Amino acid sequence: MLADLPVELLSHIVEHLPTAQSVAHLSSSCHRLNDYVEREGWRIFAQTRFPSFQTPPHWRDASHALATLSRNWDRRAFVARYIEPSGSVTRLPEGSLVPQWRRPKGQTMGFQPVIDSYEEYTGSKWSDREEVVAWSAGAELVMRVKTMGRAASHRRADFGDFDHRGHRVGWITYRPFSSAQGRDDITSVNILRPSQRRPPKRKEDGHSVVVGTASGDLTLLNLQNSLSLVSNSEETKYRDESPRTNHSLDVSSSNLRKDAGDPVTSYFVTNGRRVQSADVSSSKSPLLAACLSERTVALYSIDSQASKIAPLSEITAIPKERQKCRIWSTHFLSDTHLAVGLGPSVEPVHVYEVTPSGLSKTPVRKFGLDANDGAVDARLDTSGTVKPSSSVYPIAPLPASSQAGYGSGQLFLTGGYDGVIRLHDLRSPSAHSATYQDPTDDSAVYSLQVLGRERLVAGTARHNIMKVFDLRLASGRAYHYVDVGATGAYTLPDHLSAPPADEEGPPLYGSSTQRRGGDWNVFVSPRNQRPEQNSSWRTRRARESPIYALSAPSCTSPSLFAGVENNVVQFDFVSVLDRHPDPVFEQGLRLVSTNAHHTTTNGNGNGVESINGKGSGLETRLDVRKSWDPAQDALNFAMYEQSREGAMRLRVQRGVGWVKGELEGYDERWMDASRS
C-alpha cells in the first residue's frame, strides 16, 4: 500500500506525478497520504514542475495557480483591456482627489509609456498580495495600487474603490507644476521594492519611484494617496459630494497631515543631460544606473535621506568620434555587472563591472552579432570580413538556475533593430548562445519581458505585434496541461453555451490531443472598437503602434502590461470558462441558479456561495459576462502561430461570453478568421 511507504519513496513518487490533479488524487486516498501531501507533496510538485518560479510557501495554491497559468499560456487564453485612472484619483503635488483623469493633450502623437510593476505577498494565502504598476503618460506619472485577498478588506477604506473582482484599487498621478508635455516627458520609471526602502517600508508609507525625464530631471519620489493625509471629516465630505458636484478634494489646508509635502525626496545630479534610460539594481542597498545624453552612463547610490545625490562614477561608453552611435538602454545583470545596449555597432552590447568605487572604466566584455565572434582562432586572419552591425534596445537577464549551473546575471537576452533576440552567456566565448526570431516578421524589438525560464514576451516596432516565445525544449517540458484529465466545467446559460464535445469542439475544460505550445504573435489592436469610439486610437499611426514597453509584476502573476501609443493594455491570462481559476480571480466569479436566476457572490473564499445559503446542491451556471466583462470593456485581438512551414492561419477572438471552442488546443474564444 502507498500509505505504508516511507516518506523518501513517497517523495520520489510525487516527483513523477505529471499534474496537480494527480497529486490531489493521491491526497484523497487516505488520511496519512493527505497529511503527507499537505506537508510535502505540493511543495515537491511545484518545485519539480515549475523549477524556475520563485513562489511563497503556499504550496497547494501555488501548484494550482502555476498549473492553471501554464495551461492558459499554452491555450492562448487571456482577457485584455485598457487601463487608466478612474474613480477617486489622487493628484500630486496639488494634494487633491479628482473624480476623473484627463489624458495628456497638445502633442501630434500619443504618449509612449514606460512601465514598471511588482507585487508582494501580504498574508498567509496565495491571493493575499499587493500589486503596484506605474507608467509614464507624457510628463505625468500614473500609478495603480491594487490590494487583493483578505488585505483588501483589512486596509483602511480610505484609499481606492473595489473592482468587480473584489480587489481594492487606488490611483495616484504626479506631474510637476512647471512641466510641459513633450519637453518634460518621462523616459524612465523604476519602482523601488519594499525591501529596498530605507527605512524599511511601513504600511502607512507610500511608494518610492525613480523617474527620469527628457529635460534632464532624475528624481526619487515618495507617492502617497491624499486620503491618508486628510481628516476623516474632509474625506467623508469628498465621498458624499464629489459624485454630485464633480469637485476635487483640496488637501493643501490645515487638514493636511504633518508628514505630507512635496513627493520629491531626492534629486540625482545630471547637469541637465537628457535621461535616455535608467535601471535600479535588485540589491537591498540599490544602485541606480542612468544613461545621460546618449553617451554617458552614471552610477548613483539611492538614499532617500539625502536631498541631492551626486554620481559615484561616470563613464563615456561611446567615443566622440563615433557620431552615429548612441546608448539605448542600461540594465543590471546582477549586483556586480551592468549591461549597456548601444548602436549601430558591430558590438552593440557592453558589460561593465560594478565595484565599490563605481563602474569599471572599460567594458569587461563586448558582444557582437555573429555567433562565431570570440570563438574564432586568433591565428586566423579575419580582417577582410565585413561584420554585421545593429542596435540593441531592451536587455533582460534570465533568472538564476542552480539546476542549469549558472548564477544571477550570467545569462541574459537582448532585442535588436534587426528583429533578432539573442541569448548571451558571460561564460561563453561566443557572441550569443541562441537566437529567437519570428520567421514572418523582422521588425525591431523594442521591449522584452522574461517569465521565469518558461516564456519570453517581446514587443516590436510595427503593427502592434507582441510576440511570445516558448523557452522550453519540446522534450524537456516539466509540465503540460494536456496531461490533465477532463474535470468538467460550469454549466453556461443557454445563450452562452458551448457545443458538446462530440460536435464541433473539444471538451470545455480538460484534455486535448493536440499539444499546443510553441511561438505565437498577437496583434495588440482591438477588433471590437472603432477608431471614433476611443479618442486614443483616432489616427492610423496609433492603430499601428509599436509595443513600447512590457512589464509583469512577477513571473507567477497572471497579469502582463503592454505599453502602446497613448495607452496601457493589461492582459489577464485566464480562461473565461475555468471552473477553478487562479485564486486571485475566484472572488469575482458570478453564478446564477437554474431556477431563481439571481447572481450570487462569494463570502467564503472559494468563489461561490450556495444558492439558498444552506448548500442545497442546486445546479449553478457561470455568468461569463458578469464574471469577466461586467463593464463590457474587454478587447478582442487577433493572433497567428509563428511557423516556417505551411500557410499561416489568422485566429480572432470572440467577445467574452460568446464561446464555442471550435479550435482544438486553443481557448474557447478563438475562432478562424475566415468565420468572423
From TrEMBL:
Residues 234-244 have a biased composition (Basic and acidic residues). PROSITE patterns: FBOX. This is F-box domain-containing protein. Residues 185-208, 232-257, 495-541 are annotated as: Disordered. Residues 1-45 form the F-box domain. InterPro entries: F-box-like_dom_sf (IPR036047), F-box_dom (IPR001810), WD40/YVTN_repeat-like_dom_sf (IPR015943), WD40_repeat_dom_sf (IPR036322). Pfam families: F-box. Residues 245-255, 526-537 have a biased composition (Polar residues). It comes from Cryomyces minteri.
